[in-house]
Amino acid sequence: MAESRTANEFNLGEEQGIMLEQLVLLALSSIIAIIALVVVGWEAATGRAFSLDGICLSLICLTLVAVFGSSVAWSFHTGEVHRMLSHLRQGTPGKEAPGNNRPAAA
Description:
Layout: H1 7-46, H2 52-78, H3 80-90
Helix pairs in contact: 1-2, 1-3
């Protein structure tokens, strides 16, 4: 017989999906910010940052760092990342992990 799922179980699964989506978004934001910082460092290291093109590219990359890095920094500052990770580690409440099916001691 197929196991029926309650609306609460669907909501928990949906909530974990949203949290996972937010974590992926934060990971992509941090990757973009790191790449933009690497580009600025490369421009400075090669000396191209002192030309007009280099200055414009550096300013654009620093703007990208500010936009994407601020969202990641804010998530860490407010504790949002920690809450999402701890909630995802807990799993679905009410279900036991496989292997914990030992009978109670008599």
